[in-house]
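thought: fold this chain, then report.
action: predict
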Amino acid sequence: MGKVVARQETGKLCFDFRYLGKRCREQTSLDNTAANRKKLERILEKIEAEITLGSFDYGRYFPDSPRAKTLSKRALTTLGGYQATPLLREFAETWFAEKEIEWRESQIVTVQGCLDRHILPALGHKEVGSITRAEILEFRASLAKVNTRSGKKLSASRINHIMTPLRMMLNEAADRYEFSSPYRGIKSLNVPRTDVEPFSLDEVQRIISNVRDDFRQYYTVRFFTGMRTGEIDGLTWEHVDFSRRQILVHQAVVNGKVVPTKNDGSFRAIDMSQPVFDALKAQFEVTGKTGLVFTTRKGTALSHHNVTKRVWYPLLEKLGMNKRRPYQTRHTAATLWLAAGESPEWIARQMGHTTTEMLFRVYSRFVPNLTRQDGSAFERMLNQKRA
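observation:
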C-alpha cells in the first residue's frame, strides 16, 4: 500500500509506492499541508488502481523521472522484445502525410485544426498502442466543456468531427502494429435532425420582389435550383448551358478557393425552370464577360459571410420574417418540388443526393399528402372497391 510522505530535507511531499516489485519514491513541489496531502492521496489511489488493472504508465505520471526511462510502458515494451508503438504526435505526422493527398484543401485545413487544437494537446504524448477506451471517452467528454468564440459549447456534430481523425488514426495504427483498436464500439454522439424551415412560395415571391436589384437573379436561382452556397458562388458561365437549359454543378467555392464538388453525387446537372432560365439570361447581360456568374460590383467573387450579413438577414428583418440561414433556400427548393408532385428520383438528382432516402427523411413532413402515408389513399381504394 503506497503512501504520501514528507521529506525531512525539503519539507515537500512525495509519493512512496511499489511498482513491479520495486520501491518508487517520486518528489513533488507541494508543501506539506492537509490540502496538498489530500490532493496527492487521490492521485495515488488512481495510480494504484491502474497498477492493479495493468494500465499504469510510469512515464505518464512522472515523465521527468529517471525511472520513467526503464518503467514507462514504452520502455517496458521495448525491453520485453516487442516493438514499441510511436507516440500519437509522431504517428499523426505520418498518417497526415499519407492521407493529405486524398483530401480537398478545405479538409486538410479542418483536420489539421482538429489535431493542433484538440487531439494532440490532450493525447499527443501517449503511445498510440497505450491509449485506452476510457481515455478516448474522457477526451470526448472534455470537448463538451470547450467554449467557442461566441461563448457557446461545442455541438455534438462538431465533437464528432473532431473525434473522426482520432478514430481514423487509432484504427490505422491498430492495423499496422497489430493491436486491438480502443475505438472499437465507440459510437458517434447523436446529432439533432437537420433544422429544416423552408419558405412558402408566397414568401419566396416576396423575398425576390423586395431584394436589392443586384441580388434578384442570385436569389431566384438559389430558391429554384436548390444549389448550395458554395456551388452558386462558384458557378461560372462555362457551366451554364442555355441550349440544353441546364446548370452543370462541377465546382464550389470553399474558403475563398474554387474546388471540385465534395462527392460524386454533388457533380450533377440541374434543369432550368423558366424563372431560372430568365434570371440567368438577365444576369448574363451583367457578368457575361466575366468567369463567375455572380460577383460583387467590382467583379470579384462573393463572400457568403458579407452577403448573409448585409443582404440576407436585413431583408428578412425588413419583411418581418423569422431569421433563417441562407441554406434554407435549398430546403425550400426541395419542398416546393415535392409539393408540385415532381418525381422524388428527379428531385434527388437535382439536389445532388445519390438516393431518395434523405429526401423523404428530411422533407416528407412538409408535404404529407404527397410523401407520407396518412390513410387517405387506402380509404379511396376501399371506397372504389365498394362502388
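thought: worth noting. Confidence is low (pLDDT under 50) at residues 370-374.
final: C-alpha cells above.
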